[in-house]
């Protein structure tokens, strides 16, 4: 599998043209590729860059939130069924703005998919909109897919046998988040100016224009006892 970060011109908040950057930065797209685009430049494209009070913005953007931890200057939130700090609001490479998540990230992924399909003439490929997130009890950040389109994001092993013949009961691979993590690693977090990555040669992917989801009902989540024990506040 080949993961390649793509250097582009800067996209300047509060708004810039992502589609023209994709057109000028990608030198062709191969069939069965996955294109990963950081959510920040998608939000800049959509004009989701604002001024204001960060605490108020968090309460406005989060579906559920806890008051900000003064030690870390971060609020723990849930947005779009994802546990994410500060509802995904970002200040880095923001030109003095707060950059919010795309308002409808799955619709954004579909729009980018349709543009790439028309512009580069490919039929089997995928698009992921990525962001960085933290993992509880682990240092550092890694990539996550906040939305995707063009492929089945899960590989189901339920009912299949392991090497000793034992049937698997629960195992599924989250392809979307796995590929996002690899791409975000190559794109970096600072001044690399590589907000796009292409993955080629990722095997065993079902390409499809159906709508898929990796969301899980909180009641069915293995972390449900922890999540339910927290006194979450709802958005304003």
Please describe the structure with a list of short key phrases separated by commas or semicolons.
single chain; 236 residues; alpha+beta; 60s Ribosomal Protein L30, Chain: A; 5-stranded mixed sheet; 4-stranded antiparallel sheet; 24% helix; 24% strand
Instruction: Give the % helix.
Output: 10-25%
Report the mean per-residue pLDDT as an integer: 94
Largest beta-sheet characterization = 5 strands, mixed
Radius of gyration: 18 Å
Show unreliable segments.
Answer: none
The coarse overall form would be: globular
Assess the beta-strand content as a share of residues. 15-25%
Spatial strand arrangement across the major sheet: 1-12-2-8-9
In brief, what are we looking at here?
The chain has 6 helices and 13 strands. By secondary structure, it is α+β, with helices and mostly antiparallel strands.
Topology summary:
Elements: E1 2-6, H1 18-25, E2 33-38, H2 39-45, E3 49-50, H3 54-61, E4 64-65, E5 76-79, E6 82-85, E7 98-99, H4 105-120, E8 125-134, E9 141-149, E10 154-156, E11 172-174, H5 175-187, E12 196-200, H6 224-228, E13 233-234
Parallel strand pairs: 2-8
Antiparallel strand pairs: 1-12, 2-12, 3-7, 4-5, 4-13, 5-6, 8-9, 10-11
Task: Report on the architecture of this protein.
The chain is globular, with a radius of gyration of 18 Å. It has a five-stranded mixed beta sheet. Strands 6-5-4-13 form a four-stranded antiparallel beta sheet, with helices on one face. It is built from six helices and 13 strands. The protein has helices at residues 18-25, 39-45, 54-61, 105-120, 175-187, 224-228, and strands at residues 2-6, 33-38, 49-50, 64-65, 76-79, 82-85, 98-99, 125-134, 141-149, 154-156, 172-174, 196-200, 233-234. It has a domain at 2-49 and 102-217: 2-Layer Sandwich (60s Ribosomal Protein L30, Chain: A).
């Amino acid at each position: 599998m080949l993961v390649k970060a793509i250097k582009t011109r800067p996209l300047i908040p509060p708004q810039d043209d992502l589609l023209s950057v994709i057109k000028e930065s990608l030198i062709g797209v191969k069939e069965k590729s996955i294109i990963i685009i950081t959510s920040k430049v998608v939000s800049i494209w959509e004009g989701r860059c604002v001024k204001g009070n960060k605490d108020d913005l968090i309460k406005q953007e989060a579906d559920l939130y806890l008051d900000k931890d003064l030690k870390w200057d971060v609020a723990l939130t849930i947005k779009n069924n994802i546990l994410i700090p500060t509802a995904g609001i970002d200040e880095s490479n923001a030109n003095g703005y707060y950059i919010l998540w795309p308002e409808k990230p799955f619709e954004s992924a579909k729009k980018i998919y349709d543009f790439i399909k028309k512009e580069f003439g490919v039929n089997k490929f995928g698009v992921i909109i990525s962001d960085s997130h933290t993992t509880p009890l682990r240092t550092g950040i890694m990539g996550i897919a906040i939305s995707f389109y063009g492929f089945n994001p899960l590989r189901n092993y339920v009912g299949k046998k392991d090497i000793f013949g034992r049937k698997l009961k629960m195992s599924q691979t989250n392809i979307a988040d796995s590929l996002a993590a690899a791409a975000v690693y190559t794109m970096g977090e600072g001044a690399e100016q590589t907000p796009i990555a292409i993955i080629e040669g990722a095997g065993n992917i079902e390409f499809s224009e159906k709508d898929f989801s990796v969301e899980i009902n909180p009641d069915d989540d293995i972390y449900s006892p922890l999540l339910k024990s927290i006194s979450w506040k709802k958005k304003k």
